[in-house]
Request: fold
Amino acid sequence: MSSRHLGSCLCGDVRFEIAGDFEKFYLCHCSRCRKDTGSAHGANLFASAARLTWLCGNAKVATFRAPSSLHQKSFCMSCGSALPGLQMDGALLVVPAGSLDSPLGLRPNAHIFCASRADWDQHLEDVPRDDGPPG
Reply:
């Protein structure tokens, strides 16, 4: 039985469903993933057989491809949230893990492109933690 996952963008204009299993889950530290997330890494799920169904708002989905690369990002044109996209001529579904609303039940397979990791992305487990906003 294949899994089903629901997801959406930040503003809620775009909602989607993924039917099928994810094959890989990578935390990518390359400079392109850091730039398109604004964070230490991209957190993306990969599937070759899963199906993406747009439940609403698919007309608000845009895709940007970085020149001279295979790197691309789909996003909501209203709020800018990262969204799933088909890559490699439709052979690969790439889903930003943070776009999912349903529990994932998977852990990442690996950190990749660690040689490109941000200089401040070291020993983050030692940084103090809060359960809410900074006080």
User: Anything to note?
Assistant: Residues 4-119 form a domain with the Metal Binding Protein, Guanine Nucleotide Exchange Factor; Chain A fold (CATH 2.170.150.70). The first helix runs from residue 31 to 37. The mean pLDDT is 93. DSSP finds one helix and eleven strands in the chain.
